[in-house]
């Protein structure tokens, strides 16, 4: 009997989603606004731009900051443990990544160390809401309110999460989101830019017109075919049957560059259809994550993240840190035998991928980030994970975490 495996991530598409994306191939460009308007209503935010990826969205913001800021400000602060690809748009914009250690309790950036690192060279601070967990960054906002430093939320993995009664990505003056596969919701790929100020939004649109090209019909058709493939790949049965083929399309190496394009009507049409389920998807991610939290929080052999008060977490995946890093491999193997795929994300912090970004070559400058990278295992929370599978994960982790 074939063992059916539930993938670690994935937004399941309905037949209606795929049909709508197909019709998008024949729609006019102004239909993009329909998708953007739906996102605006969901986020309760007015000034939104859609582009081809979260990386491109971040890049557009950095180009804006360079254009309107003091030219001596060239440093962009970000956590030492996050997606290494976040450094690519910083460097492409001619700026310098500056790393800060993570907080061992929240798994997000250490806010006190962040504040102490801001100086006359700081252009921007990036608040990453890792794993979908909001960062409680009010004191950073208060500190930077009258400064020349731009505060940006990276909500690439936290679409649907809330703190202070607002959606992550719309709390600071600037934010960006990702609709890549593996994110809370997916249009196969895609990104959003949020800018509070209308004039700056218009400046950013001018920057995009100057620097981002449009996809050709052939490229858009290729994306449509990949959407068909992804709609099958995220389903447990087809994922199991096609696992060896699907493995070839997973990210297994560092990105060295990225392309920036304007968004297209195929993916925006898919987004229109998926948007009808945004609240439902976020609720299931919250429910699954909360169940994992309650089932694992008392285990002395592991650490779960401290969740800020009065927030709503649409978990991208649920992170735990096992005391004995070798036990994460045992847990991964046993859960896979149970038909549940887990991941370790990045097993090194950014400065171990890029040693030139380390401020100290003799001693470990970011010990919390290194510990996080080595001891982390991510448990799936997406809508295809049933409560029975959640309980299965709780039982296995509690039995084998060391």
Describe the structure.
By secondary structure, this protein is an alpha/beta fold. It has two domains: 15-211, Type I PLP-dependent aspartate aminotransferase-like (Major domain) (Aspartate Aminotransferase, domain 2), CATH 3.40.640.10; 278-400, Aspartate Aminotransferase, domain 1. It is 41% helix and 14% strand. It contains 16 helices and 13 strands. A seven-stranded mixed β-sheet has the order 1-9-8-5-4-2-3, sandwiched between helices. Strands 7-6-11 form a three-stranded antiparallel β-sheet, with no helix packed on it. The protein has a three-stranded antiparallel β-sheet with strand order 10-12-13. A hairpin with a 2-residue loop joins strand 6 (162-163) and strand 7 (166-167). 46% of the residues are buried. The model has no long low-confidence stretch (mean pLDDT 95).
* Cα separation of the termini: 32 Å
Content of β-strand: 5-15%
User: How many distinct helices?
Assistant: 16
Report the CATH architecture of the largest domain: 3-Layer(aba) Sandwich
Shape: globular
Give a count of the beta strands, DSSP E runs of length 2 or more.
13
Total number of domains: 2
Biggest sheet descriptor: 7 strands, mixed
Main sheet: strand order: 1-9-8-5-4-2-3
Give the radius of gyration.
20 Å
- CATH class annotation of the largest domain: Alpha Beta
Q: Roughly what is the average pLDDT, rounded to an integer?
A: 95
Helix content: 40-55%
* CATH third-tier fold name of the largest domain: Aspartate Aminotransferase, domain 2
* Series of H and E elements: HHEHEHEHEHEEEEEHHHHHHEEEHHHEH
Structural class: alpha/beta
């Amino acid at each position: 009997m074939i063992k059916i495996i539930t993938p670690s991530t994935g937004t399941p598409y309905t037949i209606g989603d795929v049909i709508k994306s197909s019709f998008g191939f024949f729609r006019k460009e102004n239909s993009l606004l329909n998708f953007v308007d739906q996102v605006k209503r969901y986020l309760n935010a007015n000034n939104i731009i859609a582009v081809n990826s979260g990386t491109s969205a971040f890049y557009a913001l950095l180009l804006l900051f360079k254009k309107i800021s003091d030219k001596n400000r060239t440093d962009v602060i970000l956590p030492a443990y996050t997606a290494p690809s976040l450094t690519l748009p910083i460097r492409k914009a001619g700026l310098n990544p500056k790393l800060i250690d993570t907080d061992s309790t929240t798994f997000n950036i250490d806010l006190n160390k962040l504040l102490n690192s801001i100086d006359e060279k700081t252009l921007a601070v990036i608040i990453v809401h890792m794993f979908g967990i909001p960062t409680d960054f009010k004191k950073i906002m208060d500190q930077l309110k009258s400064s020349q430093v731009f505060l940006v939320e990276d909500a690439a993995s936290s679409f649907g999460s809330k703190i202070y009664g607002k959606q992550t990505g719309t709390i600071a003056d600037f934010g960006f989101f990702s609709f890549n596969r593996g994110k809370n919701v997916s249009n196969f790929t895609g990104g959003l830019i949020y800018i509070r100020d209308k004039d700056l939004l218009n400046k950013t649109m001018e920057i995009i017109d100057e620097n981002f090209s449009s996809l050709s019909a052939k490229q858009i058709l290729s994306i449509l075919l990949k959407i068909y493939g992804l709609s099958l790949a995220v389903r447990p049965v087809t994922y199991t049957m096609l696992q060896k083929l699907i493995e070839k399309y997973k990210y297994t190496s560092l990105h060295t560059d990225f392309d920036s394009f304007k968004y297209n009507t195929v993916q925006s049409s898919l987004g229109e259809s998926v948007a009808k389920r945004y609240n439902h998807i976020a609720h299931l991610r919250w429910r699954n994550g909360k169940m994992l939290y309650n089932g694992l929080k008392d285990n002395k052999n592991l650490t779960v993240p401290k969740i800020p008060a009065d927030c709503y977490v649409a978990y991208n995946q649920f992170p735990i840190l096992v005391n004995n890093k070798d036990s994460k491999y045992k847990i991964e193997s046993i859960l896979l035998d149970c038909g549940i795929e887990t991941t370790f994300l990045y097993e090194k912090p950014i400065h171990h991928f890029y040693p030139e970004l380390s401020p100290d070559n003799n001693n470990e400058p970011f010990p919390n980030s290194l510990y996080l990278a080595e001891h982390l295992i991510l448990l799936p929370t997406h809508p295809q994970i049933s409560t029975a599978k959640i309980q299965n994960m709780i039982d296995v982790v509690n039995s084998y975490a060391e």
